[in-house]
C-alpha cells in the first residue's frame, strides 16, 4: 500500500514538474519606461503656472457667432459622432473582459431519442434489462434532461483581470481621442471663421481700391484729352481696373469654399455663415498664458491618450506572458435526467452531478505563443516611443507658436506704418501727376503697392487670430 502511494506521489511530482517546465517564458527585454522629462520653461518665457488651456472655449472665444457655430458642430459633426460610438464600443469591451474572469453559469434542457441495433453491445444489454418489475426497457430509448452547468477559469496568473484593466485603459484612451477631436474641430471652425472675416475685409479693400482706380482712370482720360497723357497710360490704368475686378471673383470663390468648409464641420448642407466682419482690423488680440511645459502632460488629450495606450500595452505584455503558464479550470454540473419525463422528479434516482478540475499547459508547438509575446513587447516599445513623441511634439508646437505670436505682433506694427505711408502716398502721387510732376507709372505702382499693403495687413491680422487659436489648442485647451 505504501508502495502504491509512493508511486502516485512520484507521478504527481512528475506531472507538476512537466507543467512547470512547459511554462518557461522566453527571455525578453525589461519593460521600457517612457522619458517624461521636459524643460522647466519655454524659450524666453518665465515659469508662470497660469495657463490659458484651463479656460473653457466658450469663454476663450468672445465672438458669440463663432461660439454658436462651434456649439452646432459639437452636436452635429459626423466624425465626432462616430468617435462617440467608438467610446460606447470600448465601454462594452470592458464589460466583456469583466465577465471573463467570473464563473459562467448556463441552464440547459434537452430531449433525445435513440434506437440501437439488437446485435450490438448496447442492444444486447437493453434486451435483457428490466427497468422496474414488470416494465421492459423502452424502445426506442428517449432521454430527457434539465440542469445547470458551471465553468470557471481560475485567474491565478491575473491574465483575465489584466485584460479587464487593459480594456478600461483603452476605454479611457478613446475618451481622450474624442477630446482631441473636439479640440481639432473647435480650432478648425475658429480658423475657418477668422479666414472668412479676413476674406470679407479683403473683398471690401479691393472694392475701395477699385473706386480709387476708377477715379484715377477718369483722370488719365481727361489728361489724354488735354494731350497731357497718352493712350498707353489709359490702357495701363484700364488693365489695372480689370485685374482687380477679376480678383474680386477669386476672393468670392474662396469665401464660398470657406463657408462650405464650416458647413461641413457643422454637419449641414451649404448655407450662409452668420458673421460680423466689421471692424475686423481693429479687433484686439488676447494675451495667452502658456504656463509651464509640465502642464502639457495633463492638459493635452493626445498626450494623455498616448499615456493610456502605453499603460494598456504594459498589461498586454503581462497577458501574453501568462499564456505560457498553466490554466486551471473548474467545471461542475447538476441536473435531472431520465428516459421518461414522469421520472424526472423521482429523486434521488434521477439526479446527476459532476465536478471536474483540470490544468492545461502548452507543451509542443508554442511558436504562436512566443510570437505573440514578442509582439506584445514590441507594441509596448512602440507605445513608449509614441508617448515620448507626443510630449516632444506638444512642446515644439507650443514653442513654435509662442515665437510666431511675438513675431506677428512686431510684423503687424510695421504693417500698420506701411499702410499709413502707402495711403498717404496715393494722394501724393495723384497730386503730383495732376501737376505733371510724376509719371502715370508712379501712380499705378503706388496704388498697387497700397492695395498689397492693405491686403497684407489683413492677412497678418488673420494670422494673429490663427496663432492664438493654435496656441490654445497646442496648450491643450478647447475640449473642456
UniProtKB/TrEMBL annotation:
Signal peptide: 1-30
Gene3D superfamilies xref list: Outer membrane efflux proteins (OEP)
Location within or outside the cell: Cell membrane
GO terms assigned for molecular function: efflux transmembrane transporter activity
Pfam families: OEP
Bilayer topology: Lipid-anchor
Coiled coil location: 196-223, 398-425
Similarity remark: Belongs to the outer membrane factor (OMF) (TC 1.B.17) family.
Protein name: RND efflux system, outer membrane lipoprotein, NodT family
Amino acid at each position: 500500500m505504501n508502495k502504491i502511494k509512493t508511486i502516485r506521489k512520484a507521478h504527481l511530482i512528475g506531472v507538476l514538474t512537466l507543467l512547470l517546465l512547459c511554462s518557461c517564458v522566453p527571455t525578453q527585454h525589461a519593460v521600457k519606461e517612457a522619458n517624461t522629462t521636459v524643460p522647466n520653461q519655454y524659450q524666453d518665457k518665465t515659469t508662470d503656472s497660469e495657463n490659458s488651456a484651463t479656460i473653457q472655449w466658450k469663454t476663450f472665444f468672445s465672438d458669440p457667432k463663432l461660439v454658436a457655430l462651434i456649439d452646432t458642430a459639437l452636436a452635429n459633426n459626423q466624425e465626432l459622432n462616430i468617435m462617440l460610438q467608438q467610446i460606447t464600443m470600448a465601454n462594452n469591451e470592458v464589460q466583456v473582459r469583466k465577465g471573463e474572469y467570473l464563473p459562467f453559469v448556463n441552464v440547459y434542457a434537452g430531449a433525445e431519442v435513440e434506437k440501437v441495433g439488437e446485435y450490438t453491445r448496447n442492444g444486447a444489454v437493453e434486451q435483457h434489462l428490466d427497468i422496474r418489475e414488470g416494465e421492459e426497457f423502452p424502445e426506442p430509448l428517449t432521454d430527457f434532461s434539465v440542469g445547470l452547468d458551471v465553468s470557471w477559469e481560475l485567474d491565478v496568473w491575473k491574465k483575465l483581470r489584466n485584460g479587464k484593466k487593459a480594456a478600461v485603459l483603452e476605454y479611457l484612451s478613446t475618451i481622450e481621442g474624442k477630446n482631441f477631436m473636439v479640440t481639432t474641430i473647435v480650432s478648425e471652425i475658429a480658423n475657418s471663421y477668422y479666414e472668412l472675416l479676413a476674406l470679407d475685409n479683403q473683398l471690401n479693400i479691393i472694392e475701395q481700391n477699385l473706386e480709387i482706380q476708377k477715379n484715377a482712370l477718369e483722370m488719365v482720360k481727361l489728361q489724354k484729352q488735354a494731350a497731357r497723357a497718352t493712350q498707353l497710360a489709359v490702357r495701363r490704368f484700364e488693365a489695372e481696373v480689370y485685374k482687380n475686378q477679376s480678383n474680386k471673383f477669386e476672393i468670392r470663390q474662396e469665401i464660398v469654399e470657406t463657408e462650405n468648409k464650416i458647413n461641413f464641420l457643422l454637419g449641414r448642407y451649404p448655407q450662409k455663415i452668420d458673421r460680423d466682419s466689421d471692424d475686423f482690423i481693429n479687433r484686439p488680440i488676447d494675451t495667452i498664458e502658456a504656463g509651464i511645459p509640465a502642464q502639457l502632460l495633463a492638459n493635452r488629450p493626445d498626450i494623455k491618450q498616448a499615456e493610456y495606450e502605453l499603460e494598456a500595452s504594459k498589461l498586454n505584455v503581462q497577458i501574453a506572458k501568462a499564456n505560457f503558464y498553466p490554466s486551471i479550470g473548474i467545471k461542475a454540473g447538476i441536473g435531472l435526467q431520465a428516459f421518461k419525463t414522469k421520472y424526472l422528479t423521482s429523486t434521488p434516482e434521477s439526479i446527476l452531478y459532476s465536478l471536474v478540475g483540470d490544468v492545461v499547459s502548452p507543451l509542443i508547438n508554442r511558436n504562436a505563443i512566443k510570437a505573440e509575446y514578442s509582439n506584445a513587447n514590441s507594441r509596448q516599445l512602440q507605445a513608449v516611443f509614441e508617448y515620448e513623441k507626443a510630449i516632444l511634439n506638444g512642446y515644439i508646437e507650443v514653442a513654435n507658436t509662442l515665437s510666431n505670436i511675438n513675431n506677428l505682433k512686431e510684423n503687424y506694427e510695421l504693417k500698420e506704418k506701411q499702410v499709413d505711408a502707402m495711403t498717404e502716398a496715393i494722394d501724393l502721387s495723384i497730386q503730383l501727376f495732376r501737376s505733371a510732376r510724376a509719371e502715370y507709372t508712379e501712380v499705378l505702382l503706388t496704388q498697387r503697392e497700397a492695395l498689397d499693403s492693405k491686403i497684407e495687413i489683413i492677412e497678418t491680422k488673420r494670422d494673429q487670430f490663427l496663432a492664438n487659436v493654435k496656441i490654445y489648442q497646442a496648450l491643450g485647451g478647447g475640449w473642456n
